[in-house]
Amino acid sequence: MRLGVLISGRGSNLEALLKAHAAGKLPAADFAVVVANDPQAPGLDIARAHGIQTAAIAHRGFPGGRQAHDAAVAHTLKEHGVEAVVLAGYMRIIGQAMLEAFPHRIVNIHPSLLPSFPGLHAQEQALAGGVRVSGCTVHFVDEGVDSGPIIVQKTVPVLDDDDAETLSARILVQEHLAIVEAVDLLSRGALRIENRRVRRME
Ligand code: GRF
After folding, report:
1. Which of 46, 58, 168, 172 has fewest C-beta within 10 Å?
2. What's the confidence (pLDDT) of residue 202?
């Protein structure tokens, strides 16, 4: 399955995917292109180092605004023959053009146990909520924010002395496992959505 990965920054989840692929752990996945909404995103260098094509489509000052930018991203992905999309630290809301271009074919990683703590600063939200367990979620993207059907979750403890940095680091280790697991299932065609729940066909 030809995949496009969307990033905004560091790209450690992208790197986890590309390393797993290089190690033969994603046998059905083919990384067609990495697209960033920030031309300076360090993750673009990670893609290049792995020989993956890249595109930068800056959202700042994009003519036509948010919806036009979303449509341009969808167009670029289609140009590269992309069949499914992975949001790996992509800090933009997915619009109608993307949802229509890739119906039930966009997945996102989020650093909380959804449906708790959607949106920005999920780790800070978890600390403020006083939860003893947090983690990460890979889910299908729908019209809402971090609200689509859940594919994989991994948990971590929240420790008494945690701050946002220490909790984020503990969650990130699990993100890198979760995203590889979810993309493997997705690329092998092993996921079905039934009544907003994901069923694994294995
Ligand atoms: C991750 O914590 C991801 O869950 C969140 O943004 C961060 C991106 O990190 N949405 P990276 O760019 O993959 O290193």
Report:
1. 58
2. 76
How far apart CA 27 and CA 14 sit, in angstroms, is 16
Could you report the per-residue pLDDT of 10-50, keeping only the tens digit for each?
A: 999 999 999 999 999 999 999 999 999 999 999 999 999 99
Name the H helices within 80-200.
Answer: 96-101, 122-129, 164-187
Query: Best substitution site from 107, 145, 175 to test ligand 1's pocket, by max atoms within 8 Å of Cβ?
Result: 175
Per-residue pLDDT of 78-126, as tens digits, reads 999 999 999 999 999 999 999 999 999 999 999 999 999 999 999 999 9
Per the CB < 8 A criterion, the answer to whether 160 and 171 are in contact is no
Contacts 24+ apart (CB under 8 A), 147-150: 147/114, 147/115, 147/118, 148/108, 149/193, 149/196, 149/197, 149/198, 150/114, 150/197, 150/198
CA of 164 to the centre of ligand 1 (A): 14
Q: Measured from the CB, is residue 135 less than 6 Å from ligand 1?
A: no
For the entire predicted model, the pTM comes to 0.97
Rounded Cα–Cα distance for residues 45 and 67 (Å): 27
C-beta of residue 145 within 8 angstroms of C-beta of residue 167 = no
